[in-house]
Amino acid sequence: MSVDETGLRVAVRADANVPLLSIEHVTKEYSTESERVRALDDVSLAVGAGQFLALMGRSGCGKSTLLHLAGAMDFPTAGHVRLDGVATDGLNEQGLTKLRREKVGFVFQSFQLLNTLSVVENVEVPLLLAGHANPRPIAMERLASVGIAELAHRMTHQLSGGQMQRVAIARALVHGPRILLADEPTGNLDTATGNAILELLRRVSTDQNVAILMATHSAEAAAIADRVVRMRDGQIVQEPG
Amino acid sequence: MGQLVLLYRMILRPLVRQPGRALLIVFAVALGDAAVVAIDLAGDAAAGSFRSSMETLTGKNDLEVTAAGGVPETVVARVATLPFALHVSPRIEGHATVVASGETIPLIGIDLVGEANGEGAKTLDDAEMKDSFRHINDADAIWTTRAVGRAVGEKVELLINDQIRVYTVRGLIPDSAKVSGDAVLMDMGAAQLATGKTGRVDRILIKTPESGEFADWEKRIRAALPDGVMLNPQGSETVANRRMLAAFRWNLRVLSYIALLVGAFLIYNALSISVVRRRADIGMMRAIGASRGAVMGAFLIEAVLFGFVGAMASLPAGRLMATGAVRLLSTTVNALYVSSSPGEMRLTIGSVFLALVVGIGVAVVSALAPAREASLVAPTEAMARGRREYEVRVERKRDALIALVLVVLGAAAAQAPELGGMPVMGYLAALLFVGASAMVTPLVVHVVTSAGSGLLRRLMGVEALLASRSLGGSLRRTSVLVGALATAIAMMTSVGIMVGSFRQTVMTWMDAQLSGDLYLRPAGAVVADQHPTIAPGLAERIAKVPGVQSVSRFRAYEIEYQGLPATLAGVDIDLQRGEQSLSFLSGRPAADVLRELTSSDGALVSEPFANKHHVKADDTITLPLGERKATFNVVDVFYDYGHEAGFIILDRNTMLKYLPDPAPTNLAVFLRRGVNFEATRAAVQKAAAGSDVLMFSNGEIRRQGIKVFDQTFAITYALEAISIVVAIGGIAGALMSIVMDRRREFGVLRFLGATSAQIRKLILVEAGLIGLLANATGLALGFVLSLILVYVINKQSFGWTIQFHLPATVLLGSISVVYAATVLAGIVPARMAVRLNPIEVVHEE
Asked: Using an 8 Å Cβ cutoff, are A14 and A85 in contact?
């Protein structure tokens, strides 16, 4: 487990030599009505604990597909994805869900908050789904860590875009994941707010040793990452050392 | 042309792409409409056929002469010898039971030769028929309709009154006579002999000459008749029967419309969802020039299409349902009202028209609000991001206030008297309370889902929290669903309480009413307006059986009072016997009332009679009895649940003064205390040899009574079931819509770590919560409606006082079944939710 009794992440550090996320010769194909589409083509990538990696490329280049495979939301057609040492292709649906619950946090471009729940209730959802009996203190702590504890009892439609994305980040971190997958997290925000969110992600990565894999169009956003990986037509085209 | 393109693109194309939604609406219209068509068809067939065969055979007549206890032949002679060119057709009208089949069919006695040569020539003009008249003097000669299925020359055993005799079919009634269904025809003399009506006839039909004013003819004939003999336009009795049945049929119609009301909720819901989903499309249409009227028109045309298709589908379904309903209705009509055999059921132009008007009407009315909402969509919404959630502002407090006003109006309407003999204001009160319940539902849903979500989470986990919040978040949709199911449950509850109360009241009443040990009646079917008689000497023979303390004779006649049918009966009153337990509206002891009845020319009237004719104790009523009119003082009003037309009870000795026929229709035998019941019963049976009578013990007759009662209300259970099926079908459809609308939410939950089982549980908990809210609201509404049914509608329709009784076990069982069905309705939508691909649904944006 990566969450202790108080809900704060305890030190579960991977062996420095073993990457937290390892994507090995992964291919992903989808079938449409008329043809098979190769979304990823022999992609290999490794992300270490606490590392901030930006995936850059145009729409449809395979960034989101890579995030889904990394987040144990899907299986590769070929190759292997290992998350904290666990190969996803060896898991069933329940195993994937368990892996997500324990290791992965997601942040989306359009926030994806549940608008029938308050801010703090949104943050509590991952813990409640995992069967946590008393998630409120942990959720409040996470909200405080992203700077919006005072908004805890508001409904989501009362928030600004930046505040919503902070709630989404708090929710993604509430169960103490080892990796946070962010799909265009600043895509719906103005520049100043987007920069603030990027700063927050940077801080999360550094302070909490959470690996971040961020898909983005923006070179400016990517500049905050430790590494930038460029993708085109389902392949990694350049990975600066 | 442009409007047609708009209609196609905005309405028809989405329909084809979402067949599930279209099917749900068509299902709601079709099933609700089918219930209405079925009750209409079955009601016509069950109630419309009485006396139909009696009204034929003698051609078209103008007037009919009747008298309580029969029209004396002297009166026939007096009318026939009037110095006018009248055609006079005396008739015997009764019933015979075919022993082989047990079927009871109309028996008609006419002057065959006279009719065949006179006015009836048009209908009886048949060579074979005329040839068969050579047997006319045979006492065993009968003629039957082809429907009876007997050949000429065949012997048939018929039970008439308490005697079985063998008759010979001498001819078949020609089709030209247009006698519908089964019927037996006899010559007048044979019919009088067989029915024990020697010296009198049941009716004289008169055709007046074409010349002169009809009113003058009526006046002339009236002048020739004794006081107690009635002269009415022909068919008056049928009109009176139809009038008496009107309340029964009205109540059934109202019940059948409740399924439609439930359907209306669901159509409104489905169309509202459709408008919300298509807001961007509508905005686009508005942006490129479609007017508000065009948008509203397109949605209303969609409703017309749904109504049309639903109505068409309802016709075969309604016809099929009517086949089952007609049997139940015939049993009720026969048991409580009048002789009837189910007539032919046909889908007429009228049925098609009714289905179309009701189907299209309910669809259009249900679509008005959503169509208006669509027309108000601003063109700018085309540019807005898609609204995936069903979020419509609901004015909870305003709606609750409206509910309060409706409750006050409903309570006032419940206090109002009937209009034209119909509990119109009672129906209105019920409708106002249904409206109040619908208006207060959003507040109830809001309070329960917001205040109860924490508790639900603790009890059932995060799924319950998400489910309750989601229901509260889509308040209007949830409220409509809860409202629809609650209305169906309220109907089930209220009718359940009413029937349960009625049943309990009838059982208590039978305890008091049935104090005899054995009851005898002529064998054959029991029908409310038929009173076959028992040989007069039988009561004396039974009274002499050792162990028998006394025998009470009961003689009933059908009479007409103030244009409505009623039953007049004479009873042996023995103050020493058990009638002491009879209960009267005045609350006076039975002994006092009966003593007054026997010591004066008094009458007792039943509660339904008193209510129909606004009669109370100490009033006087004037009854036509035989040739005389006699006035009686109403001694008291007694509770009765056996005959809706109402009873007038006289002391037997009093009745014999006016109607001297001593033959009773029923006997109640009282045994001495301590005698061996079975041995005495066998001895009574032996004494009754030679009379074809049926004998029942006290317990058996009670069981029969309850059986008739249960058969009477079987149709209401069927109608309730239809409403519940419509509601549950609607819930299943609506839950599927919810799944489609909230697929993004389910996808996000999967990203956040929800398992398939948790998503499944979430949907089932939502279904369960809808069921719970609907059960709670429905029970409360049902309780209020049951009070209106028991104390207003039932009282004003039938005149019965029912003691309120809560059949808790039955209600609990029904509610549990409905609740289980509601949760089960969530299974398919839950499977749909689980099969959604979270990656696809989250990235649809």
From this structure: yes
Residue A115 covered by a domain: yes
Do you know the residue count of chain A? 241
Cβ(B773)–Cβ(B447) below 8 Å: no
**CB-CB: which of B469, B752, B838 is closest to A126?**
B752
Measure Cα distances from B677 to B253, B510, B578, B695 in Å.
47, 21, 18, 13
Handedness of CA B671, B675, B677, B683 (dihedral sign): negative
Task: Quick: pLDDT tens for B196-230.
Answer: 888 889 889 888 888 878 888 888 898 889 888 88
Return d(Cα B145, Cα B159) in angstroms, integer. Answer: 18
SS (H, E, C) B489-503: HHHHHHHHHHHHHHH
**CA-based angle B290:B296:B302, to the nearest 5?**
110
In angstroms, rounded to a whole number, what is the distance separating the alpha carbons of residues B302 and B568? 58
Range B559-575 average pLDDT = 85
Determine the average pLDDT of the residues in A62-84: 91
Burial-class residue A78 by CB neighbours within 10 Å (0-12, 13-18, 19+).
middle
Q: Which long-range contacts (CB under 8 A, 24 or more apart) does B125-130 make?
A: B125/B174, B125/B176, B126/B174, B126/B176, B128/B171, B128/B172, B128/B174, B129/B171, B129/B172, B129/B173, B129/B174
Cβ contact (<8 Å) for B461 and A171? no
pLDDT at residue B629, as a whole number: 87
- For the cut 50, the answer to whether the pLDDT of residue B425 exceeds it is yes
For residue A21, tell me if it sits in a domain: no
Stretch B367-382: mean pLDDT? 79
- Neighboring chain A residues of B472 at a CB cutoff of 8 Å: 116
Q: Which helix (H) or strand (E) holds B602?
A: strand B602-606
How many domains is chain A built from? 1
Query: How far is residue B655's CA from residue B277's CA, in Å, rounded to a whole number?
Result: 75
Nearest residue of chain B to residue A92 (CA atoms) = B755
Give percent of chain A above pLDDT 90.
58
Average pLDDT estimate for B247-253: 75
Mutate to test the interface with A, among B387, B389, B462, B837 (most CBs of A within 10 A): B462
Q: Report the distance separating Cα B317 and Cα B307, nearest Å.
A: 15
Distance CA B778, CA B491 (A): 8
CATH code at A141? 3.40.50.300
Q: What is the pLDDT of residue B285?
A: 77
**CB-CB under 8 Å, B756 with A71:** no
**Residues A129, B842: C-beta atoms closer than 8 Å:** no
For residue A233, tell me if it sits in a domain. yes
Phi/psi at B43 (nearest 5 deg)?
-60, -45
Q: Is the ipTM of this complex over 0.95?
A: no
A194 versus B148: which is more confidently predicted? A194
> Does residue A80 lie within any of the structural domains?
no
> Range of A170's domain?
49-75+91-238
Are B461 and A128 a contacting pair at CB < 8 A?
A: yes
CA distance B350 to chain A (A): 50
Smallest Cα distance from B835 to chain A, Å: 12
Nearest alpha-carbon partner for B759 in A125, A123, A65, A76: A125
Query: Per residue in A84-123, pLDDT tens?
Result: 988 988 888 888 888 988 999 999 988 899 988 999 999 9
* Residue B345 confidence (pLDDT) above 80: no
B748 vs A contacts (CB less than 8 Å): 108, 112, 114
Is residue B65 a contact partner of residue B230, using CB atoms and an 8 Å limit? yes
Which pLDDT value is given to residue B125? Answer: 61
Indicate the domain borders of chain B.
1-48+250-387, 63-234, 402-515+699-845, 524-691
The token pair at A98 is: 């368990």
Task: Tell me how far the alpha carbon of residue B254 is from its chain's centroid.
Answer: 9
Alpha-carbon span B208 to A192, nearest angstrom: 104
